[in-house]
Write a structure and sequence with these properties.
mainly beta; 1 helix
């Protein structure tokens, strides 16, 4: 899985604005980015144009704390559908 230009790098903590979920970039496949909740769970695909870096508050809310500033967990669970353009 090669990283795409402009897409976040593997290991980056991001928010999928389509689903309002926070996840860690696990890889890149085709036009999408694979994300996974910090505390484990099902990976989901997201449009890289709909991703942004997670804020410090989002990291803390998800339980990443200050000791793991690069990662955050999933806030809501579930799979977002119909969000990709």
């Amino acid at each position: 899985m090669a990283e795409q230009r402009g897409a976040p790098r593997n290991g980056t903590l991001v928010v999928d604005e389509c689903s309002d979920r926070v996840g860690v970039v696990m890889g890149h496949e085709g036009p999408n980015v694979q994300l996974r909740p910090l505390r484990g769970g099902r990976e989901w695909e997201a449009d890289p144009r709909k991703l942004r870096l997670a804020t410090a508050d989002e990291r803390q809310e998800a339980g990443a704390g200050r000791s793991r500033p690069a990662f955050v967990g999933d806030r809501y669970g579930g799979i977002a559908r119909g969000c990709h353009e």
